[in-house]
Design a protein that fits this description.
CATH superfamily of the largest domain: Aminoglycoside phosphotransferase (APH), C-terminal lobe
Number of domains: 2
Number of strands: 10
Oligomer: single chain
Strand content: 15-25%
CATH class of the largest domain: Alpha Beta
Distance between the termini: 55 Å
Structural class: alpha+beta
Radius of gyration: 20 Å
Shape: globular
CATH architecture of the largest domain: Alpha-Beta Complex
Strand order of the largest sheet: 1-2-3-5-4
CATH topology of the largest domain: Aminoglycoside 3'-phosphotransferase, Chain: A, domain 2
Order of helices and strands: HHEEEHEEEHHHHHHEEEEHHHHH
Number of helices: 14
């Protein structure tokens, strides 16, 4: 029986390719009585198609704590959203690695389909995506209480304390960094209800197919970074990676979500974007529409207005 490599640190995991892991993956799936395995090329964690109907997602030792989050979210969400989420078939550990065997969603990612979609297609999909995110945020289940962070206010305070250092590490220009403290001081995030968050609700993690001439949403996946927190934290990814500066798309998305945002909505979204765990404005500024002026106020209007 082929064993998984130790990969006890992030650096050790980063040196491994999906092909390096394939012998151990094949050995694992054979022990589960499963068939052919093919590696997916996308994703931060190793993921494999198992036959036509299943997907195997691996969690190396350095990311093993994320397995419980993925499992909890999949079990709670299954059948509860207006679009499918993968059902869980098996969960386990082997050689210090965790795995989740789940249903395979049909279609292609919205990211891959996006260039082929018409304006009308996108107008149809926007409110349906908003409805799906609203349904996720509305779920109440005691199992979700185990999600991090245990204290949302304390989490934000820690992110705020490290925000300048974080953005300097990403290579953000000092002219932007100099604006961050005063901007965050000026935004009142309040004490909103804590809800389950996907945190990476983006085109990469949504599946669609074409039903005749109309595109249909066929799933949302990738829940290992899920958290509990303010609903607007999820609109960081929506604004950056779904609407991507398209104000009409965002308006339609919000209509489906059932929200009429207050005037401060764009500024709060930008504040959460600056405080986000995976925030990288050096990258965002390269791929998203430029603001009218080189200010954070203008940036908030450009991406979340």
């Amino acid at each position: 029986m082929t064993s998984f490599p130790p990969a006890g640190t992030e650096a050790e995991f980063d040196t491994l390719t999906r092909q390096d892991l394939l012998p151990a993956v094949t050995s694992l799936t054979a022990s589960l009585g499963l068939g052919e395995v093919v590696a997916f090329t996308e994703g931060s964690l190793p993921v494999y198609a198992v036959g036509e109907d299943l997907v195997l997602k691996l969690f190396p030792p350095v990311h093993l704590d994320e397995l419980a989050t993925e499992r909890t979210m999949l079990e709670v969400l299954h059948g509860k959203l207006p679009i499918p989420t993968p059902g869980v078939h098996a969960v386990g550990e082997r050689d210090g690695w965790g795995y989740v065997l789940m249903e395979r969603l049909r279609g292609e990612t919205l990211k891959d389909a996006w260039p082929k979609l018409s304006t009308e297609d996108k107008e149809l999909l926007a409110p349906e995506l908003g409805e799906a995110l609203a349904a996720l945020h509305s779920l109440r289940d005691p199992r979700l209480d185990a999600l991090d962070p245990p204290d949302w206010a304390a989490f934000l305070a820690e992110q705020r304390a490290n925000v300048v250092e974080h953005h300097r590490r990403t290579g953000l220009d000092e002219s932007w960094i100099a604006q961050i403290p005063a901007f965050l001081d000026s935004v009142d995030l309040g004490r909103p209800p804590v809800v389950p968050l996907h945190t990476e609700f983006m085109r990469d993690h949504v599946m669609i197919t074409r039903d005749g001439e109309r595109p249909r949403l066929t799933g949302v996946f990738d829940f290992e970074p899920a958290m509990r927190g303010a609903a607007e934290y999820d609109f960081v990814a929506v604004g950056l990676f779904v609407s991507s500066g398209d104000k009409d798309f965002l308006r339609r998305f919000l209509t489906g979500y059932g929200s009429r945002p207050a005037e401060e909505f764009p500024r709060r979204c930008l504040a959460y974007a600056l405080l986000h765990v995976y925030s990288n404005f050096t990258w965002y500024l390269k791929v998203l529409p430029a603001p009218e002026e080189p200010t954070l106020e203008s940036l908030a209007r450009a991406w979340w207005s």
